[in-house]
Specification:
This protein is an alpha/beta fold. The chain contains nine helices and 16 strands. A hairpin with a 7-residue loop joins strand 8 and strand 9. The protein binds manganese (II) ion.
Length: 276
């Protein structure tokens, strides 16, 4: 069973407005705030998206979404359009980073394109193109209060923040080498520096030494990222310097315990999404 799909014209209008806003944002957002929520992968999960939407209406806090709005779940279209509406209404309060699924490399095969074909049999190719054009303008990292680094995947090998800042926007496929790493890399406790990732060519696992070196060089303290499937919804790495969060209520058939994070002044806490 599906909800009544959002009319294709409305989808295109929202996507174009959002694209224009993202186009004017930098690759690396500079965010400041006393109260900020961080949301991990959503993956077309309507329950998670609804909970977060209600939360946005109850607070004036900022929201940093760490990407992966589409694929896997059944409501990629509704989730993404819903979040983009929030973004358009309050662009300074709702910050949306790009995830590895906001690329054709992933969303052609992991469910989103298929969802569009089912919900919009006549317009699926047009909508698919419009969605990905919008995704390709999204920022890919954020620095919060000068000390917290946010990105979907993780730090890239042999690159600095200034290299990330220079990545050209508009790469719909998402295969520009540094971009690919920022969106796909994962932390790994058992290695020191970098190792090839099981996820595919050009993607790396990064260890604590590589992470600490990168953070020291850039004068940053904490990283918050998403991307890794975590059944309990959140996990600290590297002596509590890196927090990984995962926010859908289910993932490829597995029920999990979705979490989000909240920063209040200097305190970072993990919140159980089901208790919101
Ligand atoms: Mn991901």
């Amino acid at each position: 069973m599906y909800l009544e799909p959002i009319p294709a014209d409305d989808v295109i209008e929202i996507l174009r407005k959002a694209e224009e806003i993202f186009r004017n944002e930098k690759n690396i957002l500079d965010i400041h705030g006393e109260e900020i929520f961080f949301i991990g992968d959503i993956h077309g999960d309507l329950i998670t998206a609804t909970k977060i939407f209600e939360l946005t209406q109850k607070t004036k806090a900022k929201f940093v979404f760490l990407g992966d709005y589409v694929d896997r779940g059944r409501y990629s279209t509704e989730v993404t359009i819903g979040l983009l509406r929030l973004k358009i209404n309050e662009p300074e309060r709702i910050l949306m980073l790009r995830g590895n699924h906001e690329t054709t490399l992933a969303n052609e095969v992991y469910g989103f394109l298929n969802e569009l074909r089912i919900k919009y049999p006549t317009y699926s190719q047009i909508l698919y193109g419009e969605f990905n054009k919008t995704f390709a303008q999204m920022p890919i990292a954020a620095i919060v209060n000068n000390e917290i680094l946010c990105m979907h995947g993780g730090i890239p090998k042999d690159a600095t923040l200034s290299d990330i800042a220079k990545i050209p926007k508009g790469d719909v496929e998402g295969t520009y080498p540094i971009l690919l790493q920022v969106l796909w890399n994962d932390p790994e406790e058992t290695i020191e520096y970098y190792a090839p990732s099981y996820r595919g060519p050009g993607i790396y696992l990064f260890g604590e030494k590589a992470f600490q070196q990168f953070m020291n060089n850039e004068n940053l303290r904490i990283m918050i990222r998403a991307h890794t499937y975590i059944p309990q919804g959140a996990k600290w790495y590297f002596k509590k310097k890196l927090l990984s969060i995962f926010s859908p209520t289910e993932y490829v058939g597995n029920i999990l315990q979705p979490k989000i994070a909240k920063l209040t002044r200097d305190k970072l806490v993990i919140i159980d999404l089901q208790k919101l």
